[in-house]
């Protein structure tokens, strides 16, 4: 603990008691679990006037089968060693056994928000390997959401994250922010969830924008059940239904008599059309874009995606014509 504190604070040890705690049987933080949960936030609020804000990284990995690939473990070890050497505070968070990856991601988002010191949430799947230096480059960027992109399993000529295509048919191109290594941070349309950095402000903004996207967690451990927010989901895009219901509700509130819905027929008909299935990471990307949160791909990161075989690729090199390597 002292080794972690010394690089961040001016530490002195005084060999005498300076404070004491009186335990009298009615201490609320000891007897009331709900009050105990508030202590971390209270400590954080009390420190704000005296301490410079510091980044704290949460590396979050959902494990479905309770196992990770050895290249993942090697990359994680090298990354945490680098974070330790630089003096960046971090924690590793894992959630094992949840068969629904979107629910696992939501649970980890809520646990991340429970820590008021946590500033950056980095989702990395257990079947990935990556360059720790690329991890650090992404970490230092101010953009709210940045993801890597890597070859699709069994279709290694394709990439998981999708850049936003700009321009006309005659001049289609990507937009981006030039980087010092000769690559560019590319504006994204959809980001893959396997290698994804999210700023705290993004989740707070989505909670404010979607106050009705709440559900009760169904964990079998009753003491761990809590209210969750649906940052990630899989299935049909339900945004048209939600917007339509909100508009109808607003009309009802604003009217003292019958409410006419004839002009909404086209929107009702639209809901009858067959829609595309959306994975949990693309669902999150769509939510961000609809709320004006920009998404970016960090292309010059060599990332491996493991299955029966391993597929390794560097999107920056692919754009230059080198392609992915199997």
Output the structural class.
Answer: alpha+beta
Give the percentage of residues in beta strands.
Answer: 15-25%
Q: How many helix segments? A: 11
Mean pLDDT: 87
Separation of termini? 43 Å
Shape: globular
Run of helices and strands? HHHEHEHEEHEEEEEEEHEEHHHEEEH
Radius of gyration equals 23 Å
Produce the secondary structure layout:
Elements lengths: L1 H4 L22 H4 L1 H15 L8 E8 L6 H17 L2 E8 L4 H14 L5 E5 L3 E3 L1 H8 L5 E3 L3 E2 L2 E5 L2 E2 L12 E3 L5 E7 L4 E5 H10 L4 E3 L10 E3 L9 H16 L10 H7 L8 H11 L4 E3 L5 E4 L3 E4 L1 H5 L7
Parallel strand pairs: 1-2, 1-3, 5-14
Antiparallel strand pairs: 3-11, 4-15, 5-11, 6-7, 8-10, 9-10, 10-14, 12-13, 15-16
Description:
- With 326 residues, this protein is α+β, with helices and mostly antiparallel strands.
- The protein has two domains: 2-10 and 35-235 and 280-319, Spore Coat Polysaccharide Biosynthesis Protein SpsA, Chain A (Alpha-Beta Complex); 238-274, no CATH class.
- 34% of the residues lie in helices and 21% in strands.
- The chain has eleven helices and 16 strands.
- The protein has helices at 2-5, 28-31, 33-47, 70-86, 101-114, 132-139, 200-209, 239-254, 265-271, 280-290, 315-319, and strands at 56-63, 89-96, 120-124, 128-130, 145-147, 151-152, 155-159, 162-163, 176-178, 184-190, 195-199, 214-216, 227-229, 295-297, 303-306, 310-313.
- Strands 1, 2, 3, 5, 8, 9, 10, 11 and 14 form a nine-stranded mixed beta sheet that branches. Strands 4-15-16 form a three-stranded antiparallel beta sheet.
- β15 and β16 form a beta hairpin.
- It is globular.
- The model has no long low-confidence stretch (mean pLDDT 87).
